[in-house]
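User: Some background: our group keeps a shared notebook of sequences we're curious about, and every so often someone picks one and asks for a predicted structure to add to the entry. Today it's my turn. The entry only has the sequence so far, pasted here. Could you supply the structure so I can complete it?
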Amino acid sequence: MKKRRIGIIGSGFSGISAACFLAEARFDVTVLEKNDSPGGRAMRLGAAFQKINFLRDLQADHAEMGRVYFPGLDLKRFDEPCKKRIEDSIRKDFDEAVKGIKKLPRSARFGVYVAYVYYLALFRKIKNTPSHMVMRSRIRIPKPQKATLLAYSFVKHQLNWL
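Assistant: Of course. Here's the predicted structure to add to the notebook entry:
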């Protein structure tokens, strides 16, 4: 019996999941992706979270482990233009990721949205922190603000205002 052929457009979470399901059902599956790498909008959200963590821990990671996670970054020359380039990259990731969050099933959306809101608040705090201060201390969100962000996210989720 000849295998049935099918094409999946997009290699985000849904596309890859569909491809796996169909391959198990003995389809000959081809996944088509317009970008250079798989992952779709979920990957962009993960990239934004990771870059924010790297940026907020820049000093500690370098001082304690000798690590710099941004290619070509010279910490001796870390200034506002350099910080802005990283922030622009994070902003692009967030702009794409939020489109994907809005398309998630409601049952899966809340947890992802809470994480998004938290990291967006952390990103804003980093943006408002001068580059020389980013190099001196870890940027944090105080616990009371975290509770407020959770409550805000819950209300928006309950009212379906995402």
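Suggested note for the entry: The chain has two domains: 1-38, 41-158. The mean pLDDT is 89.
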